[in-house]
Specification:
Immunoglobulin-like, alpha+beta, elongated, four-stranded antiparallel β-sheet, 2 helices
Length: 177
């Protein structure tokens, strides 16, 4: 019987030491455990950030879809600046008409890169009325043939319209013949 008690006491001490060692390891985190937890935390933060961005994008789409749909017609969808010198910043105005029955609300106008900057009207355009989108192309650092896009998003069907600008950019220091 005494041997049985000793065995039980030894087993209890061994379990206690094991639990204590585990708690110390978890507390300090051994480098692998700590790094693993940090990585999991970072991944969760990244996932949450992506989910929030997706949610905002879906809200924008739903908002555009919840407004009465109208239609838009541009006088031209493409513009060629021709040959320009590197560093020039030509601009072009795209004229459009709200060809639908509801007010036209342009949610966003976005260039395909930072060198292409569109300026959209902020106020609704009444049915039958005209509007303008000014696009400035900064050719600094651009050479040779350039094609850039402007995406116009609004309460239209389809939701997005693509405008295109082109230019042949003569590199700085070369003559424009």
């Amino acid at each position: 019987m005494k041997n049985g008690i000793k065995i039980i006491l030894l087993a209890a001490v061994a379990v206690g030491l094991g639990v204590f060692a585990y708690q110390m390891s978890a507390k300090d985190g051994g480098d692998d455990t700590k790094k693993s937890r940090e990585m999991q935390t970072e991944q969760k933060a990244a996932d949450n950030g992506k989910q929030q961005m997706d949610l905002l994008e879906n809200q924008k789409k739903e908002q555009a879809q919840s407004q009465p749909v109208t239609s838009i017609k541009f006088d031209e969808y493409n513009h060629d600046f021709g040959t320009i010198n590197e560093g020039d910043s030509p601009e072009h105005i795209f004229t459009f008409t709200n060809t639908g029955d509801n007010p036209l609300i342009l949610e966003k106008c976005k260039g395909s890169c930072g060198c292409t900057v569109p300026n959209c009207p902020k106020n609704p355009i009444a049915p039958g009325e005209k509007g303008e989108i000014k696009v400035v192309f900064n050719s600094k650092g651009k050479k040779n043939s350039q094609t850039k896009k402007v995406t116009v998003t609004g309460n239209t069907d389809p939701v997005q319209t693509i405008l295109t600008i082109k230019a042949q950019v003569t590199p700085e220091g070369q003559s424009n013949s």
